[in-house]
Structure formats: C-alpha cells, structure tokens
Amino acid sequence: MLPKRTDDALENWDLFVLRHQQKANIRIHFISFLMFWLGPILALAIHPIYWVLFFLSGMVGVAGHYFCKDGTVDRKEATSSVEVVVFSSLMAILFVSQSYDQEIVRVKRKYQSYLVGNIPSYADQDMFKKLGPGVGLWK
Q1: Can you give 4-55 as a three-state secondary structure string?
Q2: Stated pTM of the model
Q3: What is the C-alpha to C-alpha distance for residues 10 and 33, in angstroms, rounded to an integer?
Q4: Residue 136 DSSP class
Q5: Rounded distance, CA 25 to CA 40, Å?
Q6: CA 102 distance to own-chain centroid
Q7: 107-123 residue pLDDT tens
C-alpha cells in the first residue's frame, strides 16, 4: 500500500510526510481529502453545487500549511499534482487507521540517517533535535 521504500535516499513520500507532521494540519488535510472525493459524488448524486467542495479542496490543504506552519507548500503543486492527491489520500487512510504517527517516526529516522550519511562529522548535533525527542541516534 505504501510507496516503494529505500533506505539510502529520501523519496517524494518521505518529503511529503516531513511536511505533514502537525496534528491540526493532518486534520485539515483529512477534511480536504473528504471534500476532494465526496464533492464529485455528491454533485452527481444530489446537486451540482457540491462541485465547489472538489474545487476548493486543494486550497483547504494549502490553508492547513499556512495556519499550522507545517512545512512549505506550493499552491500549484497542491492544486494540480496527481502525486499530491495520491499522497494526501494515503495520509488520510493512514490517519484514519491510526498508523500515520508510526509513519512519521519511520520517516524521521530515515531522514536522520540520511543526514548522518551526507553531512560531515563536524556538523552540529543540535540540528537533529528538530526531528523530535527519542528519534534516531541522539536520544
């Protein structure tokens, strides 16, 4: 179900997860997910006005980043990228199944390993504190 995983380099899914860690932003993205998928169904079944939900869903996701300060997002990417639709849908499914927190921890560890392998040994270890408590080599 999850995208192909490798241990050596960060993939697009990993970067997506790193930009989607705050609970409030994840909840806003879940609302956006519902708008995206239910809007067309409701528009076809009940009334065309529900297409508005579909068309506003991307901007709701962007608003989540703006209000929660959870990573950066490009408006064009958020409103027209198929990959973002797939990743947001996957995040929503993992959120509902209560396994997205585990995915965040996995990606943070992978990110830290990536940094350790790609940053000279004299790098300041305090920068790893951004990854959160209990993650990686510096617990």
Answers
A1: CCCCCCCCHHHHHHHCCCCHHHHHHHHHHHHHHHHHHHHHHHCCHHHHHHHH
A2: 0.75
A3: 24
A4: T
A5: 23
A6: 13
A7: 999 988 887 776 655 55
